[in-house]
Design brief:
alpha+beta; GMP Synthetase, Chain A, domain 3; two-stranded antiparallel sheet
């Protein structure tokens, strides 16, 4: 596989029923995903939770990057993400919203600084996942049968 900074790929491989392994590459172990019961067996997080995790992780990493670059000392950072489902006008279940709470522990008694406040003003803009989800994502879908025969 050729490494290109403008592209990335993952493989999704069915294990059993609605259980799939998400394979990134040989550098990391696969992540098992599954749908909650009664559709699946709940053997792992589902795609909605992975999306929430991606948004929460990206925001936390963006904030941390800014704080480190601004030399704002930080002891610990956590994020909590809550998702809301709603049905659309065709009665299809959709993620209606994600609410992210970031909890940085600056570990200092004097509290936030102007550099901390500046990071709060700009960090979201650098979160690739959150800004992509907010703006909408073009997704091209192709279905192929077996050995490359288009469906």
């Amino acid at each position: 596989m050729t490494v290109n900074e403008n592209t990335f790929s993952v493989d999704v491989r069915q294990r059993d029923h609605f259980e799939f392994d998400i394979v990134f590459d040989d550098a990391w172990p696969a992540i098992r995903v599954d749908e909650p019961m009664p559709i699946g067996r709940g053997a792992g997080p589902n795609a909605a939770r992975l999306l929430a995790a991606a948004v929460g992780n990206c925001l936390a990493a963006s904030l941390l990057f800014c704080l480190e670059k601004a030399r704002v000392p930080i002891d610990h950072l956590e994020a909590h993400v809550e998702g809301t489902f709603e049905r659309d006008d065709r009665n299809r279940l959709r993620i209606a919203g994600l609410s992210v709470t970031l909890m940085p522990d600056l570990g200092v008694e004097e509290g936030p600084t102007p550099r901390f406040d500046r990071c709060l003003d700009i960090f979201e803009d650098f979160c690739v996942v959150t800004q992509s989800v907010r703006a909408g994502i073009d997704v091209e879908v192709r279905v192929e049968r077996g050995a490359g025969v288009a469906a």
